[in-house]
Design brief:
two-stranded parallel ribbon; four-stranded antiparallel sheet; 22% helix
């Protein structure tokens, strides 16, 4: 099983959102999955997760020393996609298996549900 999701960008739609300065109220009550990474060479995925709403989880990560310590390697960026609740665990599992994050190691015990890459 594979699904297409719409990964969100900021500004004119061509820029990845900065985690630390993003207006979280602009996300509204969107529920789904998210990916946080740091820029750099190489860039690396820092955290993957899900939220209902996503903005609450991102706000928590802004204050999480394990996450923000990676800003020393480059700006922390975030993207998210709306995903129905019945698919959220599987999508999070797929993302974590595909791009193992630097922070977090407990992911839903669910069959992975493949989604399109935010970077394709």
């Amino acid at each position: 099983m594979s699904i297409q999701v719409t990964w969100i960008k900021c500004g004119n739609g061509n820029n990845w959102c900065p985690l630390e300065t993003l207006n979280l109220n602009g996300i509204g009550d969107t529920a789904g999955v998210y990916m946080i990474w740091h820029e750099g060479n190489p860039s690396k995925v820092v955290r993957i997760g899900q939220g209902n709403p996503i903005k609450d989880r991102l706000n928590a990560h802004r204050n999480d020393a394990q996450v923000v310590t990676y800003r020393k390697y480059g700006i922390l960026r975030v993207t998210w996609a709306a995903v129905p609740s019945v698919q959220r665990d599987g999508v999070e599992r797929y993302l974590a298996q595909t791009w193992p994050p630097l922070v977090g190691d407990a992911f839903p015990n669910a069959l992975p549900i493949a989604v399109n890459s935010p970077w394709s």
